Amino acid sequence: MHDPQEVRWLLQDKYHWPEAQIRQVLAGGKELSASLPNEIQEDIHRLENGEPLAYVIGWVEFLDCRIDLSLHPLIPRPETEYWVEQFLRERQEARKGTQPGEELRVLDLCCGSGCIGLAVLKHLPDVSLTFVDVDPQMLAQTEKNAVLNGIPGDRYQCIASDLFSGVSGQFDVILANPPYVNPFGSFSPTLAYEPKRAIFAQKEGFEVIEKIIFQAKEHLKIEGEMWLEFAHDQAERVLEVARQAGWSVRVFHDQFGRDRYAVLRSKEAGETK
Q: Using an 8 Å Cβ cutoff, are 19 and 60 in contact?
């Protein structure tokens, strides 16, 4: 049998088995698992072959949103959830004691499953959001998740675009979790099940990040900001390129104490380094 903890989560989250029944299966080992329904046996076999648990279950939770994974987008990571939560807290704190104002225009770049933008829409009522991805199938996944989470269609739009090429106008906030894994480096074999386009980038994983840093300014209002995720070993490169491009930039840790995301602002807005 595969990892007992993964089997527990499978039976609990996908099949909604009671705890007593799950314990019985785990205690019985391979002999009892052979008597399980064929569908569950097939799912356990998928786990044994290395397929990520999230795909086998079919969905994950992300900041109170249910994110369907049926079209196999990039699986949302806890590190991403962490920084998006920080963004939401900042915005909610800034809104305290103020009257409702103009809608905040937000761009979710390289949106994948749509988890980042959907969490923003769910928790911030004064936001209109644009989802952008180069893969039309990922936009279909985003639309599916928007419906699943009860997000009204007039609060968002989806654009198929290679980064900013099909995007017009300016935004108050850009949120981006681009591909940043070095295809020639070391990485988990489970990544083989996820969309390569959403994971890997040339230039040691930095090609897409670099393009975003240099192209984003014309799509961001002067007082706006961009939150950008990157690999834990790319912080110095992000700082260097961002400063070359004329940004004021700060790097922050994730919940594991590793450099994980940066907040970039235009120097014209009066920010200091």
A: no
Closest among 226, 221, 231, 215 to 248, alpha carbons compared: 226
For the chain, the straight-line distance linking the first and the last C-alpha, in angstroms and rounded, comes to: 53
E-assigned strand segments in the chain: 59-62, 65-68, 104-109, 127-133, 156-160, 171-176, 220-229, 247-253, 259-266
Quote the CA–CA distance of 1 and 3 in Å, as a whole number. 7
Q: Within 10 A of 258 (CB to CB), how many other CB atoms are there?
A: 12
Pairing state between β 59-62 and 259-266: unpaired
3-state secondary structure 183-233: CCCCCCHHHHHCCHHHHECHHHHCHHHHHHHHHHHHHEEEEEEEEEECCCC
Out of 3.40.50.2300, 3.40.50.2000, 3.40.50.150, 3.40.50.10330, the CATH code matching 74-269 is 3.40.50.150
pTM here is: 0.93
List pLDDT tens digits, range 242-256: 999 999 999 999 999
Handedness of CA 88, 93, 94, 97 (dihedral sign): positive
